[in-house]
Design goal:
Blueprint lengths: L1 E3 L6 H14 L8 E4 L5 H8 L4 E5 L16 H6 L4 E4 L2 H6 L4 H13 L3 E6 L3 H5 L3 H12 L5 H4 L3 E4 L13 H19 L1 H6 L1 E5 L7 H5 L6 E4 L6 H8 L2
Parallel strand pairs: 1-2, 1-8, 2-3, 3-4, 4-5, 5-6, 6-7, 7-8
The protein binds phosphoenolpyruvate (PEP).
Length: 244
């Protein structure tokens, strides 16, 4: 169960969040819990989760190790501070910051090389769903951004299916629509990496997940977790989602 805070919260807000959140999820020992915070809040988040089962992730990384790349953050910088996870290819990065399937693959490979666990995002836009090309879009994103990993690399990633029309809009995909897309993605994994890899892989759903819809979504066969934006900002709502 992963939260994506996007560009919200200061370091002070981060510490205050975890003071309330950690006791709420203390008995959720059968699931991984991750908060992906803005870069500058990672040290506060990592200090706050110390001694708990909650882990911390970043929301992006650059694929170079170091160099003249003003404004960028590398994998080794993230691992050095105790960051464990990183979101790659979020639709907001694709939409506003020029992310492509090729750069998703580079970032994912760099993350793995430096010991980070990537959550790789895929998902179709509204016009793509309406024109009936959801599966074609998912296949292109999978082929360009994920299929280039080795089987060993693939075993370490989580995939997040996030239909762009459901992100931050309050329009959740119905459990059936989400399940269909997840099953399709799992089929792509079978074709490329085999049955065992597909069965072991974790496909998270993201798009307006809330405490009142998480149970139905998580009840679907191929939905293994959630990537949660807005509802991860409040300890009570993300706590309820984690504990669903
Ligand atoms: C997200 O940012 O990945 C997301 C799914 O956002 P929201 O839950 O707010 O739709």
């Amino acid at each position: 169960m992963a939260g994506n805070w996007k560009m919200y919260k200061t370091a002070g807000d981060t510490t205050a969040f975890f003071e309330k959140f950690l006791p709420l999820v203390a008995s959720a020992t059968d699931r991984d819990i991750v908060i992906c915070a803005p870069y500058v809040n990672l040290p506060a988040a990592i200090a706050a989760v110390s001694g708990s089962r909650v882990e911390v992730g970043a929301q992006n990384l650059y694929w170079g190790k170091e160099g003249a790349f003003t404004g960028e953050i590398s994998g080794p910088m993230l691992t050095a501070i105790g960051c464990k996870w990183v979101i790659v290819g979020h639709s907001e990065r694709r939409q506003f910051f020029g992310e492509t399937d090729a750069t998703v693959l580079k970032r994912t490979q760099a993350a793995l090389e430096h010991g980070l666990l990537p959550i790789v995002c895929v998902g179709e836009r509204l016009e793509e769903r309406e024109s009936g090309s959801t599966e074609a879009v998912l296949k292109t994103q999978f082929d360009g951004g994920i299929a280039g990993l080795t089987p060993e690399q693939f075993s370490k990633i989580a995939i997040a299916y996030e239909p762009v029309w459901a992100i931050g809009t309050g329009k959740t995909a119905t459990p059936e629509i989400a399940q269909q897309a997840h099953a399709y993605i799992r089929g792509l994994i079978v074709e490329k990496f085999g049955e065992a890899a597909a069965a072991a892989s974790r496909i998270l759903y993201g798009g307006s997940v809330k405490p009142d819809n998480v149970k139905n979504l998580m009840g679907q066969t191929d939905i293994d977790g959630a990537l949660v934006g807005g509802a991860s900002l409040e300890p009570a709502s993300f706590g309820a989602i984690v504990n669903h």
